Amino acid sequence: MHCPFCRHSDSRVIDSRTSDDGLSIRRRRQCPECGGRFSTVETASLNVIKRSGVVEPFSREKVMSGVRKACQGRPVTDADLAMLAQSVEESVRQTGSAQIDANEIGLAILGPLRELDEVAFLRFASVYQAFESLEDFESAIDQLRVDHHDRHTGAEHDSAGE
After folding, report:
1. Ramachandran angles phi, psi of 15, nearest 5°
2. How many CB atoms lie within 10 A of CB 18?
3. Which of 63, 103, 154, 162 makes an SS bond possible with 85, Cβ 3.0 to 4.6 Å?
4. Coil, strand or helix: which one is 47?
């Protein structure tokens, strides 16, 4: 790490702390040449493998812009989208993988988006779950109704729907 003051090619770590969100480490450093102190923030890289095969860094902004389209005309704020993007990033990082398929990110968006806005969820799901017919929409809506009813009555169904 180059010193930002004298450009010396080395520095000494004085203190390390985890950030509030737990996704980065803040390091306090000192230059052995000029004595200047500065901070760095380190994060683990997370790359996205797109359908075309191109690999690029994960971007919360791209998550937000993709979901924003599904939320058009819905009562969803930019703050809501930022929280959703943070939640998606946290869940994707919990996989422990340094690279993740773009489609997996789309699927990771579905749960938080469903909680945020069911109409936006259906719009987004129709792309990522490749709805091909009205029956696909009807099935998704039926499942939303069951889950909505269960949340309000406290009832639960097992995975077989019994």
Report:
1. -150, 145
2. 10
3. 63
4. strand
Residue 102, Cβ neighbours under 10 Å: how many?
A: 16
pLDDT tens, position by position, 43-90: 888 999 998 999 999 999 999 999 999 999 999 999 999 999 999 998
Closest listed residue to residue 38, CA positions, set 53, 27, 23 = 27
Q: Where are the alpha helices (DSSP H) in the chain?
A: 60-70, 78-93, 102-116, 118-128, 134-153
Nearest residue to 116 via CA among 63, 159, 158: 63
> Is the pTM value of this prediction over 0.85?
no
3-state secondary structure of 45: coil
Token pair, residue 40, equals 């760095």
Residue 119, CB-side half-sphere exposure with 13 Å CA sphere: 8
